[in-house]
Amino acid sequence: PPNTIVQIWRDYLRMARREGMDTTDDIVRLPKDLKARHDQLVERINARRNEEKYDHLNARIREHLTEAKRYFWEDDTYMIIPAGRCEELVEEGRTLHHCVGANDIYMNAMAEGRRWILFLRRKSELDKPYYTIEIDMFTDEIRQYYSEYDRQPDKEEIRKVLDKFKQSLRKTRKRVA
């Protein structure tokens, strides 16, 4: 099989050398749990690549954060939080198994100030993704909203929540105008 222990070990050593690790040191060269160390190294390399890849987009997204702050909203049960970095979209997509972080379409739209990604959370579980929302920044129209696996559980309840959110946006726009 292609992923034999020897191949995993060779890949691990090659990556470790590229990462500047001392592969003559037995602790590095012969880890107790090769598969775990290999996977940690892959994650470390991928995280750095993503960080480098997203630096430019994140800088452009930061330019629009002041404007996007108007999308922060809460009631007694829910909170809507504007995304602020590409990595947040990647994590959201990974957790909810949908496409928001799978490519840079939404990241570019945010960087251009055209659309924004918002995270709907239950206040009782703020760290747990629930719904992802895409909003048009020119019209404040909600373009789409999905939960896990592109589904819409509690759709009627969430529609009411989003209606309250949109009403608050209209009030804010009138005050600004």
Give your account of this protein's structure:
By secondary structure, the protein is an alpha+beta fold. It is 51% helix and 15% strand. The protein has helices at 5-18, 26-29, 34-62, 65-68, 86-96, 105-111, 155-176, and strands spanning 73-74, 78-82, 115-122, 131-136, 142-146. The longest helix is centred in the first third of the chain and has 29 residues, at 34-62.
- Structural class computed from helices and strand pairing: alpha+beta
Overall radius of gyration = 21 Å
The percent of residues in helical segments reads 40-55%
The stretches of 5 or more residues where confidence is low (pLDDT under 50) are none
Name the quaternary structure: single chain
In DSSP terms, counting alpha (H) and pi (I) runs of 4 or more, how many helices?
Answer: 7
Portion of residues in beta strands equals 5-15%
Strand arrangement, major sheet = 1-2-3-4-5
Based on the model shown, name its key terms.
alpha+beta; 177 residues
Brief overview:
The chain is of the alpha+beta class and 177 residues long. The protein is built from 7 helices and 5 strands, in the order H-H-H-H-E-E-H-H-E-E-E-H.
Any chance you could write out the topology, listing elements then pairs?
Blueprint: H1 5-18, H2 26-29, H3 34-62, H4 65-68, E1 73-74, E2 78-82, H5 86-96, H6 105-111, E3 115-122, E4 131-136, E5 142-146, H7 155-176
Antiparallel strand pairs: 1-2, 2-3, 3-4, 4-5
Helix pairs in contact: 1-3, 3-6
